[in-house]
Design a protein that fits this description.
alpha+beta; Rossmann fold; Dna Ligase, domain 1; binds adenosine-5'-diphosphate
Length: 455
């Protein structure tokens, strides 16, 4: 097994990976920027290296510094976590060239699946259903022609996109040019790649994704699905596993397509295939995430499989520990992404000092976080500060448990989404469970029109 791993990340995912390494008897090196001198991941790791200034470009995105830090501390592998360089094939190749193992898929498959337009083209060859559209990067004129053919509304999407950035909904021919250009500019700004492709907009779909585990020996299994339809501006706020509002037949189709997709591209690590499902249960591949995801915890809870440990073992070259028939769905799990944001001010990030913190507990309550009382939330990074995850036998028990956990959770000093999540967990439409990606927008409209004050 690896002797020492450098974690090229920060926050709760760095803490999560350090915990997995400790269980595997692997030493860890935490890297940190000058803004993260008091970060928790730094306290928990075996060794630490400062890699630069607060700006991510100067630290967590600086490939040379990360690799130098790994070499100087005698690491044999680098775990990229999520975000930052986790889906960057250039980084993965550089890591390997320096004689280290990149804990993730091989760079070729990462490159192929990381470009969303190219991934869609591969999925067509693999026989996986995709959304009608251009299926490749297109110019404004080409894209508009395709949009006219498939019918409006369409989405213009950044090929290199992620985190809901570089996506625009276009309702008519006349709007196309302006919105294409907006998405293109945003794509250049966020991903340094302005390629845009066009997809038919599926009306009010569910976002259902399948978690996969693969090794370097051709074995692939699924760990069931997650319902990630609770999104604000294409970004997930709450996730559940499994999904109770789709049929058993559809689930089997999704698992089969996800495994076919993985095998077709020789995928060899932990990954996720994301699908949209329409009201008639037609399903469409939208993208693959070639990394660990924020919401992996709900799948860990329902399967009792440690996905981060599985990822490390797979990167080391071990065979998958589990056969498909060994994997059981043992209950239900829900995750709330608690962010330091001001809900009443359009969810604006709220950096600042946590003056008081009380973390909930009890059976089936899990908190993945990196904050503590006195912790100063930095304005430089993502505003998500804590993931609250509950597990129980049934969805209803989970909802009750999550409400109780949210009641217990106290974060003082900064505004957070805790109360927003609490109100959401009481919404009758949410409780019924048959919600889609349009839910949150309507929920927020309703809250505002009722003039309810939420913090
Ligand atoms: P990102 O990588 O930025 O997260 P995705 O392609 O995964 O982008 O899409 C994010 C979200 O945007 C989806 O979960 C869904 O809610 C919405 N979306 C994406 N493609 C479509 C589509 N063709 N039709 C309707 N909604 C879509």
């Amino acid at each position: 097994m690896f002797r020492k791993i450098l974690i090229a990340n920060r926050g709760e995912i760095a803490v999560r990976i350090i915990r997995a390494c400790k269980e595997l008897g692997i030493e860890t090196v935490a890297v940190y920027s000058k803004a993260d001198e008091h970060a928790l991941h730094k306290e928990l790791a075996s060794e630490t290296v400062c890699i630069g200034e607060a700006s991510a470009l100067d630290s967590y995105l600086n490939m040379e510094r990360l690799i130098s830090a790994a070499c100087l501390t005698g690491c044999d592998a680098i775990h990229p976590g999520f975000g930052f360089l986790s889906e960057n094939p250039t980084f993965a190749r550089m890591v390997e060239k320096c004689g280290l193992v990149f804990i993730g898929p091989n760079p070729d498959v990462m490159e192929k699946m990381g470009n969303k337009a190219e991934a869609v083209a591969s999925m067509i060859s693999a026989g996986v259903p995709v959304v009608p559209g251009s299926h490749k990067a297109v110019t404004m004129e080409e894209g508009r022609k395709i949009a006219d053919e498939v019918g409006y509304p369409v989405l213009v999407k950044a090929s290199a996109g992620g985190g809901g950035k570089g996506i625009r909904k276009v309702n008519s021919h006349d709007e196309f040019e302006e919105l294409y250009n907006e998405a293109h500019e945003e794509a250049i700004k966020f991903f340094a790649n302005g390629d845009i492709y066009v997809e038919k907009c599926i009306i009010n779909p569910k976002h259902i994704e399948v978690q996969l585990l693969a090794d370097k020996h051709g074995h692939v299994i699924h760990l069931f699905e997650r319902n990630c339809s609770m999104q604000r501006r294409n970004q997930k706020m709450l996730e559940e596993a499994p999904c109770q509002s789709i049929s058993k037949e559809l689930k089997q189709k999704l698992y089969k397509s996800a495994i076919d997709a993985c095998k077709y591209v020789n995928y060899d690590s932990v990954g996720t295939i994301e699908f949209l499902v329409d009201k008639d249960e037609n399903y469409y591949f939208i993208e693959m995430n070639t990394r660990i995801q924020v919401e992996h915890c709900v799948t860990e809870e329902i399967t009792h499989i440690d996905i981060v440990k599985a990822m490390i073992k797979s990167a080391y070259g071990l065979n998958l520990e589990y056969k498909q028939e060994d994997v059981k769905c043992l209950g239900y799990a829900i995750e709330c992404r608690i962010a330091a944001e001001d809900v009443s001010n359009d969810f604006r990030p709220c950096p600042g000092e946590i003056s008081f913190l009380h973390i909930p507990g009890g059976m089936g309550v899990r908190v993945d976080s990196s904050v503590y009382p006195g912790y100063k939330i930095s304005p430089y990074y993502d505003s998500m500060i804590l993931k609250l995850i509950v597990f129980s036998k049934t969805r209803l028990e989970c909802i009750r448990k999550m409400r109780a956990a949210l009641e217990e959770l106290i974060i003082d000093g900064v505004n957070t989404t805790t109360e927003f999540h609490y109100v959401l967990l009481h919404d009758p439409k949410y409780i019924l469970g048959n919600y889609d990606t349009s839910f949150i927008e309507n929920f927020i409209k309703e809250l505002n029109s009722n003039a309810k004050r939420i913090r």
